[in-house]
Amino acid sequence: MLRSIVRLQCQLGSSRTLLKYCSRDPASNFSIQSNAYSSAMTERRKFYKDVSIAQGEGGVYEVHLDRRKLKTPGGKLFTVPNESLAVAVATEWDAQKETLKYYSMHLTTLCNTAIDNPTHRDKQQMITASLKFVETDTVCYRIDDPPALVELQKNEWDPVLHWIENRYNVEIGSSYNILGPEIPAATIDTFRQHLNSYNFWSLTGLEFVITQLKSVVLSLALIDRHLTVEEAVLLSRLEEEYQIERWGSVEWCHDYDMYELRARTAAGALFVQLSSEMSSVKRKLMQDC
Amino acid sequence: MSGLSPSLRVFRGLLKELREIHGTTYKNTLAYNYVIDQFRKNGVLFQVTGERQCRARQEALHLSQAYLCLLRSTREHLALHKLYHGKGDRGLAEMASLVGLRLPSQPGGKGWEE
């Protein structure tokens, strides 16, 4: 039984996509996972026909598969704070054909993580984990050879760096050193304060985006609507795209990775924006226009 | 296509993606009604004046672009996965039949099976 699980893990690629939680350390959670969601590891047949949403108590929305209410892997009732997110999750479930492909249901996975919080982290721990990426931010790590790539990095990454330096009033340099740039403590503090202003759900999404793009700068640019998802993914994969231009693209690797990264980043960005919008604020903004 | 505003382009893209997911019945789905509703609310479908610099509309545009990207890339990713991803090992019975053998049948079930 265990061997078939391991084989299935290899089959579905990274164990991160396999598990219903976006945890970064599968080894430590393996024992829990194999009990709670060994059923999630095998491919389940689609057992429902209709997907609908309903408003539950407290103004939260639930997702119903046929007559049954959707539950998280941790056993809790699946609830989301607003209708948009509920519709999007329902569409994910509705889009499944004969088998359920959990690795394609990114929004559902994010909601599950936010609801269950399987690694029992609080906001501060998540912020610290996210800020670790500042020191090794993709956009700050430059390579000095070949010259075409250096030009490309300068033209594409420098504008984003300038934008974020202006927007947040911080200092982030770029570096050709293997140690990376020296980030002043004030910058980290500013970011910490900014991240603190997000609620727990948005922070879950934001941390996910940062982990995917490997860059705090790009993630904040995306969330602040300075970049689209496609642009952010392109900038994150700049060197790879340069090599693809030069040497050609291998569909089953490059395109596959690109679409997967795009899907996850889009899901994360959507999740953050939907979790942090409040319908009353939105109404007021619409009235102002 | 160059005459379409970006929001209309996103709108068309979203409708196309929803049609890909659901087939001909896409007009009855939650997502379709929601998308139509949102675009109507933001004045995209029945625009009278030109593009006003409206923050809420910019936000809505970005959100819809992100959703379009999500739908599109999930579909492409699944297509590539289906095309290229390994199917894994065959079942034990299938493997045996490849070489012309059959698994023995034990009426009481094997001892170590549940």
UniProtKB/TrEMBL annotation, chain A:
Domain of life: Eukaryota
Annotated family: Belongs to the ATP12 family.
Keyword Mitochondrion: yes
Compartments where located: Mitochondrion inner membrane
Keywords recorded for this protein, A-Z: Chaperone, Membrane, Mitochondrion, Mitochondrion inner membrane, Transit peptide
Any GO CC annotation of this UniProt entry: mitochondrial inner membrane
Protein name: ATP synthase mitochondrial F1 complex assembly factor 2
Principal subcellular localisation of the protein: mitochondrion
Role this protein plays: Plays a role in the assembly of the F1 component of the mitochondrial ATP synthase (ATPase).
Assembly and binders: Interacts with ATP5F1B; involved in the assembly of the F1 component of the mitochondrial ATP synthase (ATPase). Interacts with FMC1.
Family annotation (SUPFAM superfamilies): ATP12-like
Gene Ontology BP annotations: mitochondrial proton-transporting ATP synthase complex assembly
Upper classification of the organism: Eukaryota, Metazoa, Chordata, Craniata, Vertebrata
Membrane-related topology note: Peripheral membrane protein
